[in-house]
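Researcher: Let's run the pair from yesterday's discussion. Sequence first, then tokens, for each.
Model: Starting with the first of the pair.
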Amino acid sequence: MATAPIGVLGGTFDPVHYGHLRLAQELGELLRLDEVRLVPSGTPPHRGAPDVAGEHRLAMARLAAQGNARLKVEDREVRRAGPAYTFDTLEELRAEAGGTRPLVLLVGADAFLEFATWHRWHEIFGLAHVVVAHRPGFPVGRWSERMPQPLAREYSARLMQQPLAVHLSPAGGVVAAAITALDISATAIRDMLRAGRSPRYLLPDSVLDYIQTHRLYS
């Protein structure tokens, strides 16, 4: 059985785009992850309801992941009744993976600044490592000063200098990793579609074809 870490990338994926996919690809390679699970959220607790239903966002994620053996798409949050908490997802994955296999939660830098507002955020470190993706040249030192004190303390205490250190323990570390800066947002894509403009080359053609076939975001 493979023992390399499993990456977990959650989000509304409303719609999934190349920013999401490039983050998964680069961190999968950098951290030598066995796989990266894309987990479209059901009812996100931190924001309004997604523009389109979970089954559409799940279908788009599956289309986007086709042809990449490292990417797997999870439907557990779409199927879950009630709020889709990351803690609950990681708890389920930990039970399935066993106590020793590393789990790695992949998040963007902006999302990590809000990490201390997440449900049972402190306990997430007991379930997985947290890898924070940021832009090249990003002033990580000054960025940590923007964190609330409880999160800054955890960040400082748990920071790993070597990304591959996530292989050495099942959970508990934090890694800051620079990835290619792609200024793509799902909000901008939705706005383009509503305005009758094409977001082609911001997301896979298969996803755009799905959006057009099902007349999403119009």
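Model: Moving on to the second of the pair.
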Amino acid sequence: MSMINYASREINCKIVYYGTGLGGKTTNLEYIYSRVNPDTKGKMISLATETERTLFFDFLPIDLGEIRGFKTRFHLYTVPGQVYYNASRRLILKGVDGLVFVADSQATRAEANIESMHNLYENLSTYGYDLQTIPFAIQYNKRDMPDILPVEDLRAQINPMGVPDFEAVGIEGKGVFETLSCVSKLVIKALN
């Protein structure tokens, strides 16, 4: 879980973006990275395979305040979308403090969303994590595409716990910071 750096007086928290391949995880991180103050962020790292890549970077949000005199630094990660890379997906979840599940709103991707959500539960259980206790939000991405499912259908399929959820168009930035802000605040709340 979160790590404390006493030298820099920072609490380091890990937020992982999980979901199907080509659902918008990378688009979310790239949009966030492009809008975060350069003085408060680290370098974006991309670990590429032949068909997928994992991105991560860290940043220090100004507006979330301090916890007992410590600043909070968030490290944002994406997982590869393909289940073929399950070992990588599982490894990236180790030490997670918060999760964003990025669902593809297109009707043709409904089964892939469900499969990816089940995969998330399975991978968390290998570490003894319970999704009901980890700060968690769902983003229904690609709301600008034709043939999308109604949000009520998406909720019934992948959000039976009723966690906070957001509609998004990641490529335009719609819903991106709202989702991140929600899960960040839930992480901060869990630390207190």
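Researcher: Give me one sentence on the second I can quote.
Model: Residues 110-125 form the longest helix (16 residues).
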